[in-house]
Structures are given as C-alpha cells and as structure tokens.
C-alpha cells in the first residue's frame, strides 16, 4: 500500500481498527484535509472543527505562515540532536522568553514531557535551593487533574481508567481539591516538604472547569509565602485559547514555572517547553534532562512562526470576543431548554453540560448528530461536550456554528 493511495473512510477506520492499538475511541469521521477553521473528510465533506486537536490548532489548520516556516526549515536542516548547536533554537528560546517574560526555556516535544520536565526541575530546586531533605520532596496537585499519560503523571491522576493496572505508582504527590484555597493552605502550613503546586488554570479534560475568580492569584500568593513553586500547566489553556495569551494573565499571575505545548506549534509539529527564571532553571546541568528531538530546528522555526501568528492576528482578543458571543448565544437557548444544564468556559475554551447521566450515550449521540450537521466536537467525561474551535474563526462563522449546534440540540429535545 502506497502512502499516496486514497482510502475511503470505511477502509481507513478498518485499518486503524486492525493494526492500531485501541487506546482511543475516536468519533467515526476520517479527516484528510484542513484549512483554517475547516476540515474535510476522505469523501470530501466539509466540517467546522470545534475541537482544534484539543486546543493545539489555535492558529487554524495548515496556517500558511507556519507551514512555510516548517517547510523551509525541513528542507534545510531537521535534526542535529543537542550534541551540537543549531542556528534556530536560540532564536526560539529568546522569542519565547521575551514573549512570556522568563529568563530561560527548556524545550521538549509533547505536553506530558514538559510536565515531567517541570516536576524534575521542581524536585531538584527543592533539594538544592530550598533545602528539603533528600527524597522527601512533595508536589501538590489537584483532584481531577489532567497532565498527560506518563507513569509518573498517572500516579497522581484520579481517573481510574488512566491508572488501573499501571502501578506501582510514583510517590511524592499530595492531592487536594481544585479551586479550594483553604485546602491548599492547610497542606502548605502543616508540611515543610512541599516543593511545588502544579495546577491547570482551567481544568480542560475534567470538563472545562473554571475556578472561582481570584483562586489562582491567592494560590500564587500562598506559594510565595511558603517558598513553594507555583507551576502552571498551560498546555491546553495557553497561547490565546482563553482570551489572553495565558489563562493566568486573567488574574495577573506570573507562574514560577510555565508549561506550554500544543498550540506552541499551531498543531503543526510536537513542540513543548518549560519556562522559568535563572534562579530555578540553573539547577539543571548537562545530562540532567533532555530529548533527542527537543529543541530541534524545525520545532524552533515552527514555534517562532506559531507565536508570531498569535500576536499578528490578535487571536487572544478574537477568542475573548467570540467566547463571550458564544456563551451569550448558547445561554439564550439554554434558558428555554431542559437538555442542556449550562455552558461554561473562558475565551474559546467552552463546554456544555448535558442534562443526563455521565453513563448515558446522549453527549456521544449529540456529537454524532453534530458531525452529520457539519461540526466536529467530542464529549469528555460522559455528559460534557467541549467546544474549542480554532481562534482564527470569524464572527460570521461562529454564528453559523451556533445555528448548527442549537439546531442539533433541538433534535434531542424531548
Ligand atoms: C493540561 C494538559 N497538560 C498536559 C497534557 C498532555 O499533553 P500531550 O498530550 O501533548 O502529552 C494535556 C493534553 O491534553 C493537557 O490538557
């Protein structure tokens, strides 16, 4: 079979089913092309993408500037490993440090790798700077977190599907309720082995759970008081998704460590990183951490282009305006509907709560009907549907999508 051979949707699904591990449960649609806010299936049917590869494609599918940067670099130099310098990485590091206000970047590839990186830096900082006794450091995490799928990360997940039969688990994590500042202070004041607090500014995978106003600012203040690193996982919320460059910007918080991934490349290539100031990042020396592909020249060229697009095209402002419009339009529908309990979110990271049991198939069936009506979204945690279109969407396109969503929901209204 040639890579160029054209498959029908049915054949493509059959191949994945037979030869791929069944570690995902995709909506039955086979995509073969994308441009801006649209994707097309193998038979040529056009859809609005309302997931953006879990907020990776913020800049829209196949953004010409990002594709151009990637293509030019791919034809010039793709990989050197970090055994040698390359002439792109330093430029990317400087651009990201200037953009987000940090001294140093440590580049990786996937979100989970960047989270692992932050955890390692945090532990090393705890022993070498804070003076916690060897192997005693703890990192506080939140219930219902999602930070990726590695052995350590699932060790502090409370999703039974992600955890079951993957033990023994990594020690050194203390889990507290999300959005509960008292719970955070309780642990901080009663335990002097705390190195860091790892938090998602909005819990995306948990169903777009937005914490109370002021939660992040108060949490940061407490971390400062107890000399604990505030680590923001902005893999899903970062890069303009929530209406600001970072979700923590809504509360004027500067994390001690910032974790980015996904839209750091506009979804064109796996690019992730951790950003921190020298007083933290200096604990890392040669051999402590790394990755063959992390910081490769293609990733670096793509990363700069992806961030430039976000700024040049005002994507944060667009996400802010369109997000308000989206929630206002859906709230009009919800006020007269018993099918949907609520819409919640920030910027263009939103979700609706379907008024049915998490074990029911209603949200899945709604997503199948949305697909048939030309819009792709995916349920999370049973009865929640996440809505996260590319941020290059126009007002007209968004209103068109609102019509599709409401028309589809009405099909399910009893
Ligand atoms: C907040 C957060 N952190 C980390 C990750 C893991 O990223 P990756 O899938 O690139 O490993 C995700 C993925 O959805 C995420 O939402």
How would you sum up this structure, described in words?
The protein has 414 residues and is α/β, with parallel strands linked by helices. The chain has 2 domains: 9-59 and 314-411, Aspartate Aminotransferase, domain 1; 64-312, Aspartate Aminotransferase, domain 2 (3-Layer(aba) Sandwich). 38% of the residues lie in helices and 17% in strands. It has 14 helices and 15 strands. It has helices at residues 9-19, 52-55, 64-74, 89-100, 111-130, 151-155, 160-163, 181-190, 215-225, 278-281, 297-312, 315-334, 362-372, 395-412; strands at residues 31-35, 38-41, 46-49, 104-108, 138-142, 173-176, 194-199, 229-233, 257-260, 272-276, 340-346, 349-354, 375-376, 378-380, 384-387. The strands form 3 sheets. A 7-stranded mixed sheet has the order 4-10-9-8-7-5-6, sandwiched between helices. A hairpin with a 2-residue loop joins strand 11 (340-346) and strand 12. The model has no long low-confidence stretch (mean pLDDT 97). The site of pyridoxal-5'-phosphate (PLP) has 15 residues, from helix 5.
């Amino acid at each position: 079979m040639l890579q160029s051979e054209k498959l029908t949707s049915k054949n493509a699904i059959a191949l994945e089913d037979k030869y791929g591990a069944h570690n995902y449960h995709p909506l039955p649609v086979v995509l073969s092309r994308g441009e801006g806010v649209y994707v097309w299936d193998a038979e040529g049917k056009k859809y609005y993408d309302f997931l953006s590869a879990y907020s990776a494609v913020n800049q829209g599918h196949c953004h010409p500037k990002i594709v151009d940067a990637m293509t030019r670099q791919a034809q010039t130099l793709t990989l050197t490993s970090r055994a040698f310098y390359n002439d792109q990485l330093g430029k990317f590091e400087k651009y990201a440090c200037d953009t987000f206000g940090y001294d140093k970047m440590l580049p990786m590839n996937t979100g989970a790798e960047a989270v692992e990186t932050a955890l390692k830096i945090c532990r090393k900082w705890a022993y070498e700077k804070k003076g916690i006794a060897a192997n005693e450091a703890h990192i506080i995490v939140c219930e219902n977190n999602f930070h990726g799928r590695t052995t350590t990360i699932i060790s502090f997940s409370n999703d039974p599907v992600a955890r079951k039969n993957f033990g023994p688990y990594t020690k050194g994590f203390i889990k507290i309720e999300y959005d509960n500042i008292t719970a955070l202070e309780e642990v901080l004041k009663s335990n002097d082995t705390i190195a860091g607090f790892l938090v998602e500014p909005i819990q995306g995978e948990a169903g777009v759970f937005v914490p109370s106003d002021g939660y992040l600012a108060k949490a940061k203040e407490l971390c400062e008081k107890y000399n604990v690193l505030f680590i923001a996982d902005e893999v899903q919320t970062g890069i303009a998704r929530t209406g600001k460059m970072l979700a923590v910007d809504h509360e004027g918080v500067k994390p001690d460590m910032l974790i980015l991934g996904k839209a750091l490349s506009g979804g064109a290539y796996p690019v992730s990183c951790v950003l921190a100031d020298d007083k933290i990042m200096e604990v890392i020396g040669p051999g402590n951490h790394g990755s063959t592909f992390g910081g490769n020249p293609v990733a670096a060229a793509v990363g700069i282009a992806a961030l430039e697009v976000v700024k040049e095209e005002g994507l944060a402002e667009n996400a802010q305006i369109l997000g308000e419009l989206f929630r206002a339009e859906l709230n009009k529908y919800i006020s007269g509907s018993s099918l949907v309990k609520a819409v919640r979110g920030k910027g263009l990271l939103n979700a609706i709560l379907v008024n049915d049991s998490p074990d029911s198939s209603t949200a899945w069936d709604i997503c199948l009907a949305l697909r048939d009506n030309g819009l792709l979204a995916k349920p999370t945690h049973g009865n929640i549907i996440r809505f996260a279109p590319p941020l290059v969407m126009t007002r007209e396109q968004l209103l068109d999508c609102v019509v599709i969503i409401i028309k589809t929901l009405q099909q399910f209204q009893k």
